[in-house]
Design brief:
elongated; 3-stranded antiparallel sheet; mainly beta; 8 strands; 121 residues; Immunoglobulin-like
Length: 121
């Protein structure tokens, strides 16, 4: 299973569309083929929050948040969050993305914090 490929902390503008591209690699730095994997992404105020600001899987995607893993052999997936969701987000949020293979083995492939800030325009 892949190990954590990135732990990031970044700031984003509340009310903007958000598109995050992640590449999954193994401990040797080799690309992990995500064919047959299910990718999940969650964003919440705290790790222990029962209420998630965003929760989505590769399938089904919602109209406001989705995961695109249409080229799994590249090891990449894209998290897209609509501005309708980010408009309501201010402050710090924790996120994780997890990959599950066909045999139900799960690995957290990235995690970190996102800070959403007010914008002038």
């Amino acid at each position: 299973m892949p190990e954590i490929s990135a732990s990031i902390s970044r700031s984003y503008a509340a009310g903007d569309d958000l598109s995050l591209v992640f590449s999954v690699v193994d401990s040797a730095g080799a690309i992990v083929d995500l064919t047959g994997f299910t990718v999940r992404f969650e964003l919440a105020r705290r790790v222990s929050s029962a209420s998630k600001a965003v929760s989505t899987e590769v399938s089904p995607a919602t109209a406001t948040a989705s995961i695109d893993a249409s080229s799994p052999a590249t090891g990449q997936f894209t998290i897209t969050i609509d501005k309708a969701i980010t408009a309501a987000l201010l402050g710090d949020y924790y996120f994780e993305a997890e990959a599950q293979d066909g045999s139900t083995d799960e690995s957290t492939v990235t995690r970190g914090y996102m800070t959403f800030v007010e914008t002038l325009i």
